[in-house]
Amino acid sequence: MLPDHRGRNMGFLAFTWRQLVLLTVLSFLSLSIVGLVVLLHKSMHISVSDVQKSHGFRGGSRGIKYTRLILGDAAGEGLAGRVQCTGLYSASSNTSTGGNEESCSLSKAKSILFITFFMPLNDAPDKGSRTNAFKLRNSTIIKLDLPYAILSVYFKSIQMSNSGCLMSILTGRNANILTRRLPEGVDIVRIPQNFTRSNLMLQRLESYAYFLGELIEINLQSDTHVDNLEHIVFMDSDIIVVGDLKCLFDVYRDFDIALTFRNNKDQPINSGFIAVRGEVASLSRARAFLLEVVNVYKERFVKAARMLGDQLSLAHIIQEHSKKINLRFRKPSIFMSQISQSQVLFLPSQIYNWTPSEGAGQFHGMPENVKVIHFKGSRKRLMLEAWNEFIQSGSLVDMQCLILKSGRTKYDF
Description:
The longest helix has 49 residues, at 6-54. This protein has one domain (65-81, 110-405): Spore Coat Polysaccharide Biosynthesis Protein SpsA, Chain A (Alpha-Beta Complex), CATH 3.90.550. It is of the alpha/beta class. The strands form 4 sheets. An 8-stranded mixed β-sheet has the order 7-6-3-8-11-10-13-12. It contains 10 helices and 14 strands.
């Protein structure tokens, strides 16, 4: 008697039928999900485009650039010792700096000579193309005029915060400086050589050392100049000085050269702020220190002669002479250490070289007793916008709050 396979075949057909129904349902659900994702993606793309258009977006896929600032919530709200942009503002000293600068007598402090190194973008033309113009509030800046706009803000901030101080530009022998675009009272000091942008940072340090050498030579020839020396602060021009720096030299009397530090293992020192005490012996030791930095620069970091080589060279010299000094960079406290033959005063960047953060927020905000705000890198537009805010409102706090509310996108030119 042959076996009956009909029951087995019917079960097989039923099983495959259920599979087919299940497969159809799953396919339908998958297509629905894909369709929803596509629609959502399109709606998101439209929204982003609308936002970009409303905020003046220009640029390609490599990065977003806006023609005006994108403002958000101010960072540092509710944190002690930080600028508060809501409610009443009351400045209080930040004890973490380890300093006592505000207790000095400004009447006893000598004047400061502020010096910045500057090389024009283009020495030949005096007019820029309108195709390279940028709008700032109600004004328009031609790209060729941008360095002068930054220089002007830098010097005006010094006049505002350090009245009576001297101001100078270090530049090349044949550089065409358009002095009419600068505030009154700015002197031009020419170094007997021409500069190239490929060696900009190296040439800047060499110019500092040369200038100190010339100052030493002048004072060695005449004793009458010794008591009239000004303290010297070398600064980048993309800086707004908001605090009086005379007290720094009055309170700390034993240093030769002052540098600003941050808690960064590879690049703890930023050369955008270098202070030198106005005494012949200090000038000589500071010059020797800078020449040592230049030599290390040429020997080890010549490939970074345009950018970063100065910071790498400074870090190398400091760490070579004091292996444990990085431990002190972890806390924002003023301290002094002997490097080679120089007494080096280390100042926390968060007070003497504070830089607004890029990207998502300003981290812990701006210290209430900040003295120097450095708009390095892609922050030049923010510098000009912040100064415009100060001019319009007359309030330093309004300017600081504008800085703290911005920086959540690329805002450079």
